[in-house]
Design a protein that fits this description.
Blueprint: H1 3-25, H2 29-53, H3 58-88, E1 140-141, E2 148-149
Antiparallel strand pairs: 1-2
Helix pairs in contact: 1-2, 2-3
Amino acid sequence: MTPEEQRFLLVGAGLFVLGIIGFLTRRNLILMVLSAELMLHGISLTMVTFGRMHQTQEGQAFTIFTLTVAACEAGLALSLVLALYRKSHSLDIQLWSELRESDLAGPTADIASETEKPVDAYENIPKLTPAGIVPKDPPRTSASSGATSSGRV
């Protein structure tokens, strides 16, 4: 193993360790995704270095595959973050505990901002009722006068 290969392996291991530390210590979902990407790049650098050490191309081929999967993962994670941010107006993953199933235990940590309710931007959007339940008939507004009418159409 040449000194150059040793440096590449150390940099790859350093990237992986920094990614783990960032993933475990952050509560912001975007920073967690970036930390996961950092771990993947550390692994990719290590695979290319091992491929170079053994005079094979498998490390490079697997790295290209890993980078493709990482790009797909980043796109999906970003779309998930945007959808959840629109719902809760926060990037803190502990505030998203309302997405949890109701029969599971809640988080043990107290959150100071838990008392603040985020503004629901989607409260005026029609919602489907569950099967077997008769939906409530909301009062209708007349287009010309703006008054509500209780009669059926």
